[in-house]
Design a protein that fits this description.
The chain has about 60 residues and is mainly α. It is built from two helices and no strands.
Length: about 60
């Protein structure tokens, strides 16, 4: 999940704006988590394309 759609429970503003300390801490934690995982940076269409390529490769190898 991206932090641009999250709403802070503390100040009721978007977390991406970072208006309060809770927003800033959450934004920083989400940015660190997002940078450490390769799969979190991929969008769903990219994952579907990768899956299609893998299925095609398996189908070619099965022949």
């Amino acid at each position: 999940m991206t932090y641009d759609r999250l709403v802070c429970a503390n100040c009721a503003s978007p977390v991406s704006e970072g208006r309060c300390p809770v927003c800033r801490a959450s934004r920083q934690r989400l940015e660190q988590d997002g940078n450490s995982n390769f799969w979190s940076g991929m969008n769903p269409m990219m994952l579907i394309a990768l899956l299609a390529v893998l299925i095609a490769a398996v189908a070619l190898l099965a022949r």
